[in-house]
Amino acid sequence: MQTMAGPLYIASLLLIVAGAPKLARPDETARALRSVGLPGSPLLVRLMAVAEIAIGSYALLFGGSISALLVAIVYLGFAGFVGYALAKGGVVASCGCFGRDDTPPTWAHLILNLAAAAVALGAVAAPVTGIIDAVSNDPFAGLVLVAFVAMGTWFAYLILNVVPTVIPVRAEA
Q1: Residue 64 near residue 123, CB atoms below 8 Å
Q2: Would you say the pTM of this structure is higher than 0.85?
Q3: pLDDT, the chain, mean
Q4: Chain centre distance of CA 82
Q5: Better-predicted residue by pLDDT, 10 or 104
Q6: DSSP string across 60-108
Q7: What's the rounded Cα separation, in Å, for the pair 79 and 72?
């Protein structure tokens, strides 16, 4: 099995999972973009969500260097936005990434986005096949891989959306 397959599939599935709520309810993300001085309209957010879902789906289903590069670009863009929002002093109340129960961007968002970009860049250098090929080549290992991807995606969701709500952030004086 290819080394970067699981991590790239997690990053790709996370794009799909995060893109769907933006497509359905773009207002939070549009507000987040506007709060840091970037253009943000519901139509723009929906277009970005469609691109996010398409890129995540393409990378997850088909793999390859180009899809991995696109995933890296998306995550670098997210990291840039989160870094900018953090530098502006937490202007953003919610980035809208996972729907209405979202939290503001945190350092965990920035680190996870940079890690996902690094994983995707690693998959550019060592391309992986799509998850269907990976599963069909070895069904037992494929089942383990699918479980790993599901758990990894859930873990990433928890880091981004749940942990910041249960671990208070101390303001430094």
Answers
A1: no
A2: yes
A3: 86
A4: 12
A5: 10
A6: HHHB-HHHHHHHHHHHHHHHHHHHHHHHTTS--S---TTSTT-----HH
A7: 10
